[in-house]
Specification:
The complex is a heterodimer. Chain A is globular, with a radius of gyration of 15 Å. In chain A, a hairpin with a 2-residue loop joins β5 and β6. Chain A has a single domain, classed as 3-Layer(aba) Sandwich (Chemotaxis protein chec), CATH 3.40.1550.10. In chain A, α1 packs across α3 and α2 packs across α3. Chain A is α+β, with helices and mostly antiparallel strands. Chain A has three helices and six strands. By secondary structure, chain B is an alpha/beta fold. Chain B has a single domain, classed as Rossmann fold. In chain B, α2 crosses α3. Classes of the chains: A alpha+beta, B alpha/beta.
Chain lengths: ~150, ~120
């Protein structure tokens, strides 16, 4: 049976806050404050397939992506390579996606994360059902959940 | 005591090792591997006293790693450190022979709680 329930905005927000407070410092919380996202930046996405199909994506500016990597590795920004950045952002979306998946009923499989500089557009068969516009260290962070459109029972 | 940390993410391996220290379990030898297949080789080569493994990895997943390990007679205590902590995954981990499952994001306290019994038995 395919489960097409949507995660609530509040649940996704709670997951993101827990990831940020645990691994990126509780003293610098991620704030529920929309800040304009400039073009470019980094995207990290992960898909869920099986009983519940979805794509969870985190978009960050270059500055926020570098700060995430530097904080997770506990090293200066200038010492973080692009490989480190891809690794850190992949873990970030892996944690957000894995915890969102755990909220949903049905058995499903989490993909490996995909990280890139620029937009990672979800498949055209998916629609955005949840969008969190947040701010961390003055930089915008956007978390989205995309699902297949609900099937018409008729 | 020797602990094998298996995760395809170098960042996460560093965080796990850091959290071991923060939770009061920092005095052990640490060995690292990047996926389940390398983990199996490291178990053979290093004979660790505890394995901490991610679940979702390329080459060989953590659950396949554990199943193969137990299938070949390996009895080393094994715990998952993974982003998915649903009841279904915890049940699957336990059925395969895992001692515990720590869900990411974790804290030093959750590490100490899960590892205490296993590490206490191997001073």
């Amino acid at each position: 049976m395919t489960v097409t329930l949507e995660p609530s905005l509040g649940d996704v927000h709670a997951v993101v806050e827990e990831v940020w407070s645990s691994f990126l410092g509780a003293e610098e919380p991620i704030l529920p404050l929309a800040t304009p996202m400039p073009p470019g930046g980094w995207s990290a996405a992960i898909t869920v397939s099986g009983g519940w199909d979805a794509q969870i994506t985190v978009n960050l500016t270059d500055g926020a992506a570098q700060a995430v990597t530097s904080t997770m590795l506990m090293c200066p920004v200038e010492d973080c390579s692009d490989e480190d950045l891809r690794d850190a952002l992949g873990e970030l979306v892996n944690m957000v996606g894995g915890n969102v998946k755990s909220l949903m009923a049905g058995s499903a499989v989490l993909s490996l994360p995909l990280v890139g500089h620029g937009d990672i557009s979800p498949g055209s068969h998916l629609v955005e059902v949840c969008r969190l516009e947040l701010t961390w260290r003055g930089e915008p962070v956007v978390v989205t959940v995309h699902l297949p459109p609900t099937a018409d029972p008729s | 005591m020797k602990i094998l940390v298996v995760d395809d993410s170098r960042v996460m391996r560093q965080i796990v090792i850091r959290t071991l220290r923060q939770s009061g379990h920092g005095g052990h030898d640490i060995v690292e591997a990047e996926n389940g297949r390398e983990g199996l080789e490291a178990v053979q080569r290093e004979a660790p006293d505890l394995v901490l493994s991610d679940w979702n990895m390329p080459e060989m997943s953590g659950i396949d790693f554990l199943t193969t390990l137990r299938g070949s007679g390996g009895t080393v205590p094994f715990g998952f450190v993974t982003s998915e902590g649903s009841p279904a995954m915890r049940a699957q981990a336990e059925a395969a022979g895992a001692a515990f499952l720590i869900a990411k994001p974790f804290t030093p306290e959750s590490f100490d709680e899960a590892l205490g019994a296993v590490l206490g038995a191997h001073p």
